[in-house]
Amino acid sequence: xxxxxxxxxxxxxxxxxxxxxxxxxxxxxxxxxxxxxxxxxxxxxxxxxxxxxxxxxxxxxxxxxxxxxxxxxxxxxxxxxxxxxxxxxxxxxxxxxxxxxxxx
Length: 104
Hints:
The protein has 104 residues and is mainly α. It has one domain (2-103). Helices cover 71% and strands 0% of the residues. The protein has 5 helices and no strands. The protein has helices at residues 2-16, 23-44, 55-64, 68-81, 88-100. The longest helix has 22 residues, at 23-44. The radius of gyration is 14 Å and the shape is globular. The mean pLDDT is 87.
């Protein structure tokens, strides 16, 4: 498990964060995360989802992640912080830690 978390942090820091070079890019990234977690929440409650192309992964995540609603709230808060000139790499780290605590 620890290696998966370490790998996820490494990928986030080296591949994702460099792409988020503007507030608009960061907002788009967080919007996609919000949509993903809303679909995971919908899957948990057997409601229809919108990201049909990754339906299998959403279903798998709905069984693995325990605190989807709390994570979604943190993602929404982080997206709101972008307009307050928050440090985007730190926001990504915070979200990664929030998602990572799901499995602990």
